[in-house]
Amino acid sequence: STAPSGRRRVLLKLSGEVFGGGKVGIDPATVRFVAEQIAAVKNTIEVAVVVGGGNFFRGAELSENGMDRRRADYMGMLGTVMNCLALQDFLLQAGVDTRVQSAISMEQVAEPYIPLRAIRHMQKNRVVIFGAGTGLPYFSTDTVAAQRALEIGADEVLMAKSGVDGVYTADPKRDPTAEKYDRLTYDDALLKNIRVMDLTAMTMCKDNDLPMMVFGMEGDGNVTRALRGERIGTTVTV
Ligand code: UDP
Q1: What is 8-237's CATH number?
Q2: Looking at ligand 1, which atom is closest to the CA of residue 138?
Q3: What is the pTM of this model?
């Protein structure tokens, strides 16, 4: 489903962990590092981004500590919007026109989620950042990545990981014999209980034949390389 313009169109998923640099809050140096790598493909690749919020709040964790799950999930979604604004800021500084679209209405800081408009932005060389998840509790931003990618007709979902450069046969930090997969099918991942995304997201990709690449964002230009389509991580397909 390459964009009508013939250009590659991708959906980049950045977890909240990426934004926080492993801590709570925003790590500006890391956000700048990512923004500059997105800027490198300006005018050549259509880029949409879904950002997580785990560096602020995860609904499931808050509810384990006594909060109502639904309200905690809304807090989680609001956290993603702060990440969106940080990324927007550094993209603008890197010379890339950017729009944030939020699934929860907050018109002072973001446009509402309007898929056709998002596509139009990308055609005009703007990066679109999707915030506030689906706007619905009990979902994850992985699921949002799959859903938005399908709705805007992205060719591929790119899952940027921190601290690991793909999908392995076992946890490479614990098992020295662990090997990296270059390729994997969704059925294999499901069967082997490898959670490259959460189950809802994986099922959605599988059912709709949407390919994905899991890659490590550290290292020189890895985000740019992934955006360009280099197979630097693990490719997961039907
Ligand atoms: N969330 C939600 N609905 C959505 C997306 C996210 O309720 O559609 C909430 C949920 O509480 C989640 C939090 O937002 O824990 C942050 O998102 P996520 O955990 O997916 O972020 P990541 O792990 O990618 O940093």
Answers
A1: 3.40.1160.10
A2: 7
A3: 0.96
